[in-house]
């Protein structure tokens, strides 16, 4: 079952359950998928990597909007963004915690033969591809930087 089919099925369930917040988030995801499909100009679906990028981007946008609303004291809008974020995260792969992220990054660093901070770009290229959707890019960058600056990993 493709992501689009899962979303369609979940939209029907949300409509039956009269869950407006979930329905709004699911419709937003479906809209992103449909826009990506029409951008390519074809009627064929999009691949899983593109789906993952779309969901990751949508989650990041919701997270940043919620932070902005929290800073402005708009708890009502922050709650809406957080509810939509929770729905989007259901379709993303499980996020790595900090310990697991560091373990995976140490493996990548050893595999590419990185020795210090000057190899940051080389490690980030591989890490970004392998850990796409499993960790935030900012968290990956920070952890790689820390590990490369402390070469006794």
Automatic annotation (TrEMBL):
Coiled-coil intervals, chain numbering: none
InterPro entries, sorted: Asn/Gln_tRNA_amidoTrase-B-like (IPR003789), GatB_Yqey_C_2 (IPR023168), YqeY/Aim41 (IPR019004), YqeY/Aim41_N (IPR042184)
Range of residues in the leader sequence: none
One MF term in the entry's GO annotations: carbon-nitrogen ligase activity, with glutamine as amido-N-donor
Protein name: Glutamyl-tRNA amidotransferase
């Amino acid at each position: 079952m493709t992501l689009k089919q899962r979303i369609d099925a979940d939209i029907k369930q949300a409509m039956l359950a009269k869950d407006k917040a979930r329905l709004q988030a699911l419709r937003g995801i479906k809209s992103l998928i449909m826009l990506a499909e029409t951008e390519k100009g074809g009627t064929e679906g999009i691949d899983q990597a593109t789906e993952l990028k779309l969901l990751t981007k949508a989650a990041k946008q919701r997270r940043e909007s919620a932070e902005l609303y929290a800073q402005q004291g708009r708890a009502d809008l922050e709650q809406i963004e957080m509810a939509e974020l929770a729905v989007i995260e259901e379709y993303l792969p499980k996020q790595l915690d900090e310990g697991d992220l560091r373990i995976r990054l140490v493996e990548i660093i050893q595999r590419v033969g990185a020795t210090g901070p000057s190899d940051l770009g080389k490690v980030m290229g591989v890490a970004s591809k392998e850990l796409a959707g499993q960790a935030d890019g900012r968290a990956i960058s920070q952890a790689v930087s820390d590990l490369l600056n402390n070469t006794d990993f």
